[in-house]
Structure formats: structure tokens, C-alpha cells
UniProtKB/TrEMBL annotation:
Name of the featured protein: MerR family transcriptional regulator
UniProt organism field: Amycolatopsis antarctica
Domain of life: Bacteria
Gene3D superfamilies, alphabetized: 1.10.1660.10
SMART domains: HTH_MERR (SM00422)
Domain HTH merR-type, first and last residues per copy: 6-75
PROSITE patterns on file: HTH_MERR_2
Keyword field: DNA-binding
GO MF term set: DNA binding; DNA-binding transcription factor activity
InterPro entries registered for this protein in UniProt: DNA-bd_dom_put_sf (IPR009061), MerR-type_HTH_dom (IPR000551), MerR_fam (IPR047057)
Amino acid sequence: MRGSTVFTIGELARRTGLPVKTIRFYSDEGLLPPTDRTPSGYRLYDTAALARLELVKTLRELGIGLSDVDGALAGTTTVPALAARHVEALDEQIRRLRLRRSVLRAVAKRESELDEVKLMNKLASMSDEERRALLDEFWAEVSSGLEVDPDLYEWMRSAKPDLPDDPSPEQLEAWIELAELVRDKDFRALIRGMSEGNARRRAEGEDLSPPDEDKRNQWAEWADRAHAHLEAGLDPASPEGRELADEIANGSATPGQEPGDPAFRRELADKIASGSDPRAERYWQLLATINGWPPVPTRQPAMDWFIGALRASAN
């Protein structure tokens, strides 16, 4: 070693900023074998050992464990392979930390008690697969054994909650509320009842396919007008209510149905009411918040108003 540059542990500590105790530990673990020893038995290290120590320091600062560091130094794995594996692990840790942050923000906002905090944390910690499985199980239960319209129900089943890695408190609260909603027995009974009605009408030959864009726009326009009349304080039995009821009846009647028939109007009002419930609407509002879709405005008061207009026009 004469003529070569060598360093004591103390000199390595000054050059790397690592404590002597840490360097000695690395050396004892075999990560930094001494190059030579002094006559008194003190360990000495050459420039290659210094470079090795710098690599150990860097990998440890990046959170890589001693066994993985040893593998990289021994050549049984590569630094890029280690980095890729640890990036995946860090991504998962970051995701969980962000969820915890959102849970805590939601807890603070809602002033939650202990039991609710436990439930919120459990629901927030679900994986994407677990969230989707919860909704799959919900739709399976509410339509099991029923000959419901396959296209309509497949469309409804396809809408899944996709909570982002860094959800806002609003998104997290929306997911928790949605999870509580689909687990609620009364809500399941409500949607089961709607499904039974769907199966019955389908068996009677009614066309239950999802409305096209023009029809959806037409119903939205009727709902907007009903909302405006409601805001203006008009009664569903008013002339404006009668006018709107006439348009809804004329636009909803199929061949063979008489739009002016009071029985048809009462039946139409009952059908709209059977598929109209604030909790069902809330389901889609929550999904929109979770997934970052455009907000779903509440139309329930307007629906109630023109259901009342249809019934009033049948008297």
C-alpha cells in the first residue's frame, strides 16, 4: 500500500460527512471491507473504498435497504433495477400518505367522532379494485334474478369510482358517502324496487333502452322550465303547469297511447316518480365528484313539480 492514498475511518468521515460509528457499522457488515490495516490494527481504506462508501451513502439516503445495497455492490442486482423497484414502493407510500392527509382533512372538516374516523379510514384505504368490487356487488344484488334491460344496466354498472392518487377532501368525502350509500339496506331496497319495475315493464314489451341525446336534451329542457316555474312560485296546477304537462305527455306517448287520456297521464306520472328519488340522484352526483366529471345538478324538485303538473292535468 506504500505510495497509495489511504484513509482512516476518521478521514472517511470528514470527507463524506458520515459519522465514524456509521462507517464502522458498514465495514462490520461487509459493505466496506478495509483495504489494509495499520500495525496497530486500525482499518485503512483506499480511494476505491471511498467511492464505494459514497455509493453506499447515496443509496441509503434514497431509502434503499442494506441487503439491496449489498446486492448492488456485489453485482447480483443493478442500481437501475433497484431504483425501479424502489420507485414503485415510494409511489405506493406517497399514495397512502396522500390518502391519510385527505382523511385527516375530511375528519377536521366534518368534526368526525372516533367511530366515523375508523370507517372513513377503512373506506379511504380501499384499492381501486376493492372500490369497483363494492359497486359490482351492489348492482349484482339489486338486479339478481331479474330480466332487466341489459343495455341500461350494463351502462349503469360501467360507471365506476376512480379516486385519484391525490384526492381532494371533497372527492374523498364523496367516496365515503357513496360507499355508505351502496351499503345501506334501505337504498338497496329502493334500487331493487326500481329494478323490479324495469323488469316488469320490459316483460310487457316497453322499450327501455337509454334515451338518445335529443331525448335527454328534451327532458333537461322540461326540467329547467319546471325549475323556473318552481322558483317563480307557480303551482303545478297553474296554466304554465298544464302547458308543460301537455308537452311532456305528447313527447312521451308512443303509438297507440293517447296523450290527453287522464289514465295515461297518471300512469306516466307514476312511472316517472318510481324512477325518481333524491338518493338515486345523489348516487350519480357523488360519482361525478369522485371521477372529476361535470357536476350533476339536482333536478329532484323540478321532477316533483312536473310530476305534480302531470297529475293535476289528469283531473
